[in-house]
Please model this.
Amino acid sequence: PYDERCLLRQPQHHKEGALIMKFKQSVKQNQRIERITSHHLIIGIDIAKFKHVARATDYRGIERGSYLVFSNDLEGYEKLYQWMQALMLQFNKTNVIFGVEPTGHYWFNLAFWLKEKLLELVLVNPFQVKRNKENRDNSPTKNDVKDALVIADMVKNGYYSETHIHAEPYRALRQLVGTRDFVTKQVSSVVNQMYRWTDMYFPEFQQVFKDITSKTALATLAEFAHPSDLRHLTVEDVIAGWRKRLKRAGSRKVSAALIHAAQRTAAIPNCVEEAKLSISLLLQQLQMYNDQLNQLEEKMSQLLRSIPTAKLLRTIKGMNDITLATLYSEAGDLGGFTHGNQVLRLAGLHLSENSSGTYKGEVKITKRGRPGLRKLLFMTVFHMVSINPEFRALHQYNKQVKNMKGMKSIMKLCGKLARMLVAMAKKHSVYDINKVTVAA
Model:
């Protein structure tokens, strides 16, 4: 429900001059409500691709003026600005706050325009909009005009989160990571098509090459695309063909096995030229997508060098450039968080429990947050318990001493990683092994 330009930030609480890292969500909720005063004009905007709808209320929820329909372009934004000024003058308001439901990417242009105008924009959760749509009329009816008023009511009640436009490197990483995910899916699709091709036209190929994307396997498909090209060749002929495409040719044993497989293949007969053309096009696509991945990853590494905390976080064993780029693209500047638990909440890894009376429900993660960040934290910890000695020791301690199940231990370590990342970013410190050790 939260977009890449939105970060949940918590206030810093001080007691006798000391910074208290722990925070309560209820405190932040009260502060959001207290910010809305009688001088505020609250404008809720229902976002769409072409036409937005805006409605305005005061701090008590009384609607002011009639609703406005405006286009998603500069002309429409100016129309919104004039409508806002007229309402502020008519009802004697000195402050204004805009609330939107982040619908896809359609609200980005409006958000940047409001930022240029120094106007405050907050976000409401689409799930909560759906939950609150019957508050006024007790009706399940849903339309753009009604949703705009529901959004304004939610902002008035403090049910919103502040927006934070990330600095350019983080936004650039977000774009590159999204493109890389798309290209990676295309690579998987092409590889699956290659497996399908070999299943039909050279079923024994996968017995010779366990990995169809290995260099020798790809060279074989490029040079000897069909079993009919191999049946009458010698071992030396195959090796000579590999040398055209590889710096180091494959072994004679693999060559002999390949020829033997081609001679006893159960491939689909006929359509040889068409089959060769199909695999040739697939190989070209695979090469193109791999080149694009290399280009994207090189650009991501360049951007990471412009982020000061990236070098610090890279000292953690198990954190590489791809992981860091994805982390920054999802969470932004980690130094902007007050506590690591905010990262967990942003990822939807905070806990929830349904209990009533004597019944105590099972504690689960909410999954109310960014799935990309949630997946990243989980996969990173899963990788680190294998290669990072400190996290592996903590995982074993949780399972053997605390009798935790493996998955529960992984989720607990996700929290530790999140808090560690925020602390390192805020204090500009490197990875300290002594702080990631099993308690004696």
The longest helix spans residues 168-201. Residues 398 and 404 are 6 Å apart (CA to CA). The two ends are 41 Å apart (CA to CA).
